[in-house]
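Reopening this ticket.

The earlier resolution said the output was attached, but the attachment link was broken on my side. Pasting everything inline this time so it's all in one place.
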Amino acid sequence: MTYTVLRLLLFAAALGGLYLAGVRDWLLVLLAAVVALLLSYLLLAKPRDAAATYLATRGERRRELKADGKGSRFQRGLADDDAAEDAADDAQRSAG
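Inline output:
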């Protein structure tokens, strides 16, 4: 989140600087995006690495949960609903 906010701030600063320099129309946005990209590559190495590490850790944890059969809360909720539906169906069949 921090990395994204910093990149947006760089874009806003580039946009403002280029506007004050006299660049207008669609070229303003295009050049601001390029300038912000270059500045973020040069200035935001640590936040970028932190964001990449966070995302890699989060992805690894999700893969581990999926491998353990735990899955997400949504998947567990679906499994619980399926089990309840199966139990109700079995009870109805044995009664009928």
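Reporter confirms the inline version is readable. The helical segments are 2-20, 25-43, 45-67, 73-95. DSSP finds four helices and no strands in the chain.
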